[in-house]
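Milestone 3.1: sequence recovery, worked example.
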């Protein structure tokens, strides 16, 4: 049965209904079924009607910054540490999701980017999620916080601090259990990185985020493959986020107009997936590894045909890959942060709808400003594909407990009312308010 079929988990329901109130039960069930049917019709048609399943939507690619964190420059020494400046002049305008600048993310004395309170304020974050019909969100640090250029002991301490701060956000009562977190690791030392993965899993993180390369070492590097092997053994999903984008020399040809983000990031992700295929990483890693590439896999889906053709036509282009590149589809996930119906369709056709997850890049201005709108309204998607991308794949990949749909919740409440009625004695029923009033109170 479909997970949003109101009959799910109710095979023995009739046995629990008080025999003296069948008409009331049927009336309630009829109303719930009508609401469910109307919402499903609206969703299937891409309409703007209320969705019975919107609170089940999971956003797997969203960032956070703590409001404050330790003074690492004072603690460890060195220059160019990231910190948040909450005072002083702030730029006008909006910087994601209609929000004005509340702080400036600094690197040493240099302004890096304006940020908003949604980065650290759980209530503000949930206010945005509620307005967009997003039920849960998996948060991860902005890659600037990795600090992989520093010594491993320092980076390990930084990772522990930020991971613990992320856990505090997730466990904040204001989060209502709707947030989960990915940890960061000191990847410059694989043993330390593996230890932090194991520790973070025990403290409640649901996966790890890493950058797509470590200096000049890509994800087919033996030590990085060993780290991914550990993640597979820990049953710990991996989100790969592009960072430290190549300037595409000679010179810095992507230095203008934010092309580091719009050109550099997609090429970095394309390069990473290609290295994992041609460098033999996927052939060395178990199929149980759950790994997702941000931003729809970057330029990779558009260039897969060229890559596959080269593998077939030139032996030198095969690298260490045991199979043609197209045969590795199904070994990884991508998110849906592509902002275009045609590209989203390409993702589904290339990777399969069961390998695409909703990702927004919230709360930054280059994120999807109405989270999930592209997927919810994509004309080429079937209802099943839409549900796969909006929540089902995320629940599977990150091991999240499935959330009931609104109609399932309504029927559960109805069952609870009926069970309370059934447990009352005739004398209690005679002195109780009418059941219909109790059910609507």
């Amino acid at each position: 049965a479909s997970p949003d079929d109101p009959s799910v988990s109710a095979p023995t329901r009739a046995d629990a209904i008080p025999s003296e109130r069948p008409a009331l039960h049927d009336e309630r069930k009829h109303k719930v079924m009508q609401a469910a049917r109307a919402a499903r019709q609206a969703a299937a048609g891409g309409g703007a009607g209320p969705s019975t399943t919107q609170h089940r939507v999971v956003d797997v690619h969203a960032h956070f910054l703590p409001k404050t964190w330790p003074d690492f420059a004072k603690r460890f020494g060195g220059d160019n540490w990231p910190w948040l400046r909450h005072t002083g002049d702030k730029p006008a305008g909006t910087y994601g999701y209609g929000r004005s600048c509340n702080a400036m993310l600094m690197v040493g004395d240099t302004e890096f980017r304006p940020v908003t309170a949604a980065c650290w304020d759980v209530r503000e974050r949930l206010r945005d999620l509620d307005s967009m019909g997003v039920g849960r969100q998996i948060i991860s640090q902005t890659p600037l916080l990795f600090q992989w250029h520093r010594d491993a002991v320092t980076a390990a301490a930084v990772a522990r601090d930020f991971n613990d701060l992320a856990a505090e956000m997730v466990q904040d009562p204001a989060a209502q259990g709707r947030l989960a977190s990915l940890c960061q690791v000191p990847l410059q030392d694989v043993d330390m990185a593996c230890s932090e993965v194991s520790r973070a899993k025990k403290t409640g993180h649901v996966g790890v985020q890493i950058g797509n390369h470590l200096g000049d070492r890509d994800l087919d590097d033996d030590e990085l493959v060993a780290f991914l092997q550990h993640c597979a053994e820990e049953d710990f999903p991996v989100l790969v986020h592009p960072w430290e984008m190549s300037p595409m020399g000679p010179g810095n040809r992507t230095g203008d107009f934010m092309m580091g983000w719009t050109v550099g990031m997609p090429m970095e992700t394309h390069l990473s997936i290609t290295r994992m295929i041609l460098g033999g990483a996927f052939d060395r890693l178990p199929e149980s590894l759950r790994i997702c590439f941000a931003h729809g896999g970057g330029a990779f889906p558009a260039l897969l045909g060229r890559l596959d053709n080269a593998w077939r036509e030139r032996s030198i282009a095969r690298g260490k890959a045991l199979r043609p590149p197209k045969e590795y589809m199904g070994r990884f996930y991508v998110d849906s942060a592509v902002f275009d119906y045609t590209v989203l369709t390409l993702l589904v056709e290339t990777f399969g709808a069961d390998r695409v997850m909703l990702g927004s890049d919230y709360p930054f201005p280059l994120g999807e400003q109405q989270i999930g709108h592209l997927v919810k309204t994509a004309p080429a998607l079937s209802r099943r594909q839409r549900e796969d991308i909006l929540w089902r794949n995320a629940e599977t990949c990150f091991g999240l407990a499935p959330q009931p749909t609104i109609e399932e919740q309504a029927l559960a409440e109805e069952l609870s009312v009926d069970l309370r009625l059934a447990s009352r004695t005739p004398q209690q029923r005679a002195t109780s308010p009418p059941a219909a009033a109790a059910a609507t109170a």
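The longest helix spans residues 22-44. The two ends are 32 Å apart (CA to CA).
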